[in-house]
Amino acid sequence: MEHSLFPTETKLKFYIERLIYGVVIAMPLQPMVGDVLLWLAIGIAFIDLVRRRNLSLPTGWLSWTVMLFVLWTGVSAALSDNAQWALTSWFYQIIAGGGIYYLVRTYISTPKQWRYFLQCVLGTAILVCFIGVYEYIFVPNQHINEWVDATQFPKLMRRMSSTLMNPNLLGAYLLMILSVSISYLLVYWKGLTNKILSKAYKKQIYMMIPVALILFVTLLLTYSRGIWISFGAMVIYWGIFVERRLLLSLLAVPIILYFYDGEIAARLWSIFQGHDTSADLRWALWDSTMYIVRENPIWGIGWNTFYLVYPDYNYYIQGPNVLMYHAHNLYLNMLAEIGIPGLISFITVLLGHVITSIRLQGDVFRKAASIGVGALAVGVLVSGLSDFELYSHQVTITFWLLMGWVGAFVKAQQKATIINHN
Q1: pLDDT digits (tens, 9 = 90+) for 254-268
Q2: Does Transit peptide appear among the keywords (predicted)?
Q3: Would you say residue 9 lies in a domain?
Q4: Structural domain of 126
């Protein structure tokens, strides 16, 4: 009999699976706890690989796209003028993101595990919303002056940030979760109305409706204009690929803006006016960032070193105490930090998962997931036009674990295809 200090392969997988669920729950709530669980899971997974003598190159082209992105970002960091900081940031964010991608893709491999995973994701998001509501009502907002132009929005006194510590980051996190939850709601609802699905799915629809509503209301209370636009783009995506009648809901936006005179309407109208300091700052920031890109087009300046390099290019606000942690634009930030090949590799990862998921065969659960990853891609790419939320460790880990979830579906289909051919 094997000694308890040396658990069997089955026990190792059991531990890893539970640790993955722990990361899903802890990372949005308390990232330090999430990191401990993540690295513990990676360590046990390495032991599992060694014991099974399964240390090999990535399987499938999707895994290769992720591997190439991780490797290129690492080389870029090593060549940076601020290599020590860049490599530390690369390890903390990119290696961790690639690690959670691998863990979910490899160890969340059965329909039962996929459903547990989804329940953890949605349940945690609801808890984040409830914490945000409590803080929104009872906790003084210490950073409101940093997040709102008071002269442009005198009525806006609160923006919800919850455990993400920043309303824009909370909005990005909720946008990712909404891409999944609403996709399931729409696919299940359409299947039920077309009598493709049995009435047993009614219960799941009824459970998903309040979840989506809570997430959506919280998203509104972040007052993040870029996230609102991204959600609108996701609605267009759902309208094209799931339910055309959903496009009619966009007609309600101008009607609400006309009759409703409140903080949400003021923020939406400001998108078309462009006279607040946030918009002005972004234009100057993007212009300065282009000089960084022109001087470092291939290797970039190194991951997460933007705030160290930007002061040398900042003509808009001259001052050594002005810190700008990222370019407030996904495309420009990645071009600056990891170069043109780095941005191309990231887009390849994102679109590769979307294209592959479309070709997935299986039950309605996987069909809804394929719609969800498409909505996630739309949300990330559109919100990336005005911000770089993947700068956040919590947001980037959420992104990679959702990518890994789709990767798990693809890997399961590949395995089934091999078995059938044999």
Answers
A1: 776 666 555 555 555
A2: no
A3: no
A4: 61-421
